[in-house]
Amino acid sequence: MHPETSPSGDTWQVGDVILASRFLLGTAGYPSPQVLADAIAASGTQIVTVGLKRQLSAAGDNGFIEIIRAAMRAQGARLLPNTAGCTTAREAVQLAQMARELYGTPWVKLEVVGDEYTLQPDPLELVEAARQLAKDGFTVFPYCTDDLVTCKRLLDAGCPLLMPWGAPIGSGQGLINPFALRTLRERLPDVVLIVDAGIGAPSHAAQALEMGYDAVLLNSAVSQSPDPVRMAGAFRQAIEAGRAAYRAGVMARQDFAVATTPVTGNPFLIGNAP
What is the pTM of this model? Predict the structure, then answer.
């Protein structure tokens, strides 16, 4: 869906790029290229991520990326290369530079992993890589934790947005620390925030949007589903519903019961009672 045709007129922005879809979709692990293309179409996404290391290890086979590009052209989507698999700032910067040459885009999803078990980002290497890439003219989408101080350092380094995790990559646990995510949204009200990683069900995505997050990025929850295309559509609907709920105003939680129709002490009539 193009921004100018968005039925609600509700868009968001990265630099000078205006977007209507709040669903960012990964491309790894699909059962076939055609299923991937169909899932991209069903998702309505305008940002598709691809791992550069995967491409470099594909022995020169460009069929995969061409399928992605064809699917993207049909809905005006943009490519977001990522530095998945990098463990140092130097490695991530080099890979990002290669991605810019290969794909012709200054956008990069920056991943610098510090722990092989949890795939948790290394905050020091991540900030250093972000600083170097921002100076080099990249639009950096940093995959980070929900730590407020680290997020502020990334903004200071030149990142135009943040991508805090909901849970470890591929875990499907959803938003395991809602308090931290709400804190980020409250403390950084004008920053584009995208929940990246850990989302396993459409309800998780809806929750993120209800909290005021601008978008979500996910991969495994769709690619590993028995029916990736249908699941992509389910996530699209959940994301749209979550955003609509946020704009409408989600009901505040209460620690006690509040009667929907309070009647205590108030006379009322039923039907035609005399």
Answer: 0.88
